[in-house]
Amino acid sequence: MRSRPLSNSETRRRSVRVYQCRFRRGAERTVAWIEARGAKVGAWVDLETLDDGGLWEVEAVFDTPLEDRALKAMQRLNRNSLSSLMKNVV
């Protein structure tokens, strides 16, 4: 069975909006991107990539959302550019 490429409308439907948010947990603070469904001031979320120390409270939600695909592309570009800088460090 062959699968066909997704059309633009199908791709758009499957994308997820993410927001950059500021979080706190006790005296700790951090900033991360999360899905729109959790990006509400006062919500408690699990930031899986940080640690298993418990939930974080959303302290602020910044205005400009990104599609999850755009965020992944931006992160990939940033990682690639940083690795090239590290190659030049002696």
Average of pLDDT:
81
User: Helicity, in percent?
Assistant: 25-40%
N- and C-termini, Cα separation: 52 Å
Please report which band the strand proportion falls in: under 5%, 5-15%, 15-25%, 25-35%, 35-45% or over 45%.
Answer: 25-35%
The rounded Rg comes to 17 Å
User: Which stretches are low in confidence, meaning pLDDT under 50 for 5 or more residues running?
Assistant: none
Q: What is the number of beta strands?
A: 5
Largest sheet: 5 strands, antiparallel
Give the number of domains: 1
- Globally, the shape reads globular
Compressed to H and E, one letter per element, the order equals HEEEEEH
Structural class: alpha+beta
Features of the shown structure:
90 residues; alpha+beta; five-stranded antiparallel β-sheet; 2 helices; globular
Verbal overview:
With 90 residues, the chain is α+β, with helices and mostly antiparallel strands. The chain has one domain (16-87). The chain is 30% helix and 30% strand. It is built from two helices and five strands, in the order H-E-E-E-E-E-H. Strands 1, 2, 3, 4 and 5 form a five-stranded antiparallel β-sheet that branches. A hairpin with a 2-residue loop joins strand 1 and strand 2 (28-35). The chain is globular. The termini are far apart. The mean pLDDT is 81.
